[in-house]
């Protein structure tokens, strides 16, 4: 009967293991890593009800939040990489442009519509290969999957610049040292000015100014907008939000792509705050004046068979009398979600809860300290993997008293194993009596069988917090360890099932078990051998199967997390071995006597 139960337990465990592997594989991102506006065949996002750029007339919008000006995006679904490259090249040469040049970003701004629509991150590549392409964050109108930002005005009583307006620029290149000024004047003598500057990283500042040189008053509403065509390939994992988000009166609101596809339009009011579109590692965010009242929208429209997502805000009306001027200041963040940089922007620019642009998760009180500890250690050690090893040691030291108490209790349980074996043999036909005698033994010897679980419980939130850090922070992306681990945020690529890459064969997902998961499984097995076995022989056999099961389950987890687990197990084995030797407890399972 025991053998049948054991077989059934193994089968059920195997089903759970395979199911977990399948689910875990389905939740992981594609092999070509995150680029905003990626080259995918899926439909992506853009904007709301907006005038068609084919209409060459200037647009006078109404001052309602549902009429932020813009353009439709009639983009056919071009699938080939060559066609995409040709479309991009054509789009970049179709309009007059001014360059963007800095150490961290390059690109251009279209003078037609004053769109910031061409931005490449010079410090980040699509893969770990040094020759891979840099991340293209923003893409121009006319490419296959446009993704851009623009700022402007809506008005009910004067002509305002629109998507087809050709702006004049006082400079041909935007750099951190040289801002640019764009100007356009309507027939009524109202002059519109956009002064755009860029800092040393990813923050654009847009100063919108209106000068009324005419003879009648003008009422304008400044706005900012992000437009994205098509739905990007996302990780689609429950611990990470990708899509639209914003801070409204210091409260975070997250909107998934499927949510906005269903609702079509979500409107909110706020004072200050910010709104944007986030990917796993990249962010575009509109940041209005933090003291201004804004109307915001998140919307989705289907145009030419593709989702067109738009995020926009509109500030309060500005009434500009003849001979006067008014201005509005906004910012655009477009770049990598580097944690320290995000925090610096929050503090230095007083951007409400800008730190929540990074999805720290439920255990934020643990996730943030763990992350910044790793960064701090890396500044000295030079390797994020070594920082994980050092952090593990510090965590073990923090739980040292609790672990010591637990391991002493387990050592005592080990010493009691011969007596427990005799009790089980004596009362093997009377389970109730056997349990009674065992409990009396525990009480007489002052042993606590539950004490072995104590050091595990507080480590569970630590494990999940570290998982969050490895999974979502860009500082761990493409961070190498030693040997074959070139990316701590990706699974261990080395597996014995293809002779460590010597055979040109990719094993199926269930067999893609790396070296570090195997090391982790071995350390877990050794640790389990040091623990007293469960009283029930069947439970003991199932417990011995757990290291194999966990090896398969963690095989596709980020390598940094598996290294942490393996190193933590090794330290636990060493600590437990020393304590048990001092207590005189037998090492390994005692034999029956």
Short key terms for the protein model shown above:
alpha+beta, Beta-galactosidase, Chain A, domain 5, 11-stranded mixed beta sheet
Topology:
Elements: H1 2-27, H2 81-93, E1 97-101, E2 105-110, E3 115-125, E4 134-138, E5 147-155, E6 168-169, E7 173-174, E8 180-185, E9 190-198, E10 203-212, E11 218-229, E12 243-248, E13 251-256, H3 257-263, E14 265-271, E15 274-278, E16 282-287, E17 293-303, E18 306-315, E19 318-320, E20 325-336, H4 339-348, H5 364-381, H6 384-398, H7 400-426, H8 431-445, H9 459-472, H10 515-530, H11 537-553, H12 559-583
Q: Can you give a write-up of this model?
A:
With 593 residues, the protein is an alpha+beta fold. It has two domains: 40-57 and 70-359, Beta-galactosidase, Chain A, domain 5 (Distorted Sandwich); 376-583, no CATH class. It is built from twelve helices and 20 strands. The chain has helices spanning 2-27, 81-93, 257-263, 339-348, 364-381, 384-398, 400-426, 431-445, 459-472, 515-530, 537-553, 559-583; strands at 97-101, 105-110, 115-125, 134-138, 147-155, 168-169, 173-174, 180-185, 190-198, 203-212, 218-229, 243-248, 251-256, 265-271, 274-278, 282-287, 293-303, 306-315, 318-320, 325-336. The strands form two sheets. Strands 1, 2, 3, 4, 5, 7, 11, 14, 17, 18 and 19 form an eleven-stranded mixed beta sheet that branches. Helix 6 packs parallel to helix 12 (559-583), helix 7 (400-426) crosses helix 8 and helix 7 (400-426) packs across helix 12. The chain starts with a helix and ends in a 10-residue tail after the last helix. 40% of the residues are buried.
